[in-house]
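stage 2 :: seqdesign
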């Protein structure tokens, strides 16, 4: 089976999305890119995450052609492959419909640096212009809004996070949803105090040496 480890990881992290409340039912999608083969594996369309098996995960090339798999791939193939085509720092993507990040996306607001943990994605998280789900327009809008960032809000839709692997993409998803919740709650009480660009630049540098190194 092509990309067996990556397909198993997609199953694992799909279940984690459900268990942590970051998505429900079949909402969202996950993928992993293998630069050696030029293929990427993506979750299938319309199957509950708890029911997906590695064999259900579909392998495609960067033109969007199915290489291996008997299922229909996620409708957001274009949304994933544009990043694998054009960015060499992203090897895994998680797209979700989380509650608070999606709330901001429905307001078409950017997520500012109300908490320093937004630095896992950049100085802020921009909201992309609206486009219909599953279209090349959505992919292009997301790509443009995520330049120099590792996450983007999709207007009236949800959140997308990209990283070197699924573990880091999952971490970004969790942290950005957390910051989106903080921002929403602080707005309900008063005017949030936003961290400045200098502080966020410092956070970006500090995060480069955060955690255990291989």
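stage 2 :: out
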């Amino acid at each position: 089976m092509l990309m067996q480890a990556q397909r198993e990881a997609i199953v694992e992290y799909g279940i984690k999305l459900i268990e942590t409340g970051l998505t429900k039912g079949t909402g969202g999608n996950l993928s992993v890119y293998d630069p050696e083969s030029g293929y990427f594996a993506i979750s299938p369309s319309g199957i509950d995450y708890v029911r997906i098996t590695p064999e259900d995960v579909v392998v495609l090339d960067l033109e969007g052609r199915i290489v291996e798999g008997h299922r229909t791939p996620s409708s957001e193939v274009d949304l994933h492959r544009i990043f694998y085509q054009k960015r060499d720092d992203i090897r895994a993507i998680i797209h979700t419909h989380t509650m608070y990040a999606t709330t901001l996306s429905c307001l078409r607001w950017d997520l500012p640096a109300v908490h320093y943990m937004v630095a896992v994605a950049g100085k802020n998280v921009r909201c992309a212009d609206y486009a219909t789900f599953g279209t090349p327009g959505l992919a292009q809008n997301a790509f443009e809004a995520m330049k120099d960032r590792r996450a983007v809000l999709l207007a009236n839709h949800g959140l997308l996070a990209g990283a070197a692997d699924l573990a880091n993409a999952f971490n970004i998803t969790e942290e950005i949803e957390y910051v989106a919740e903080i921002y929403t709650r602080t707005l309900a009480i008063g005017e949030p105090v936003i961290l400045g660009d200098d502080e966020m630049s410092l956070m970006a540098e500090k995060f480069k040496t955060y955690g255990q190194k291989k």
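stage 3 :: structure notes
- The first strand starts at residue 29 and ends at 34.
- DSSP finds six helices and eight strands in the chain.
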